[in-house]
Amino acid sequence: RPATVYRGQYVTVDELRLLQTNIGGFISFKTFFSTSTSNVRALRRTGDG
């Protein structure tokens, strides 16, 4: 069964628009990143939480 995970990361407006046009598709990052099932924990990783 699918799981929802969250990732706290700053992105530019252009990067956000690109992600929004790719809903349901695949994304790829050049770096390793961690995720959490807690959106609060992910927000803390951005420094805004």
Structure summary, number of beta strands: 0
Number of helices: 2
| Whole-number tally of structural domains | 1
| Global outline | globular
How far is it from the N-terminal to the C-terminal residue, by CA? 29 Å
Which structural category do the helix and sheet elements fall into? Answer: mainly alpha
**Which residue ranges are poorly predicted, with pLDDT under 50 across at least 5 consecutive positions?**
none
Would you kindly provide a written description of the structure presented here, covering whatever features stand out?
The chain is mainly α and 49 residues long. The mean pLDDT is 82. It is globular. The protein has one domain (1-49). It is built from two helices and no strands. It has helices at residues 13-20, 39-45.
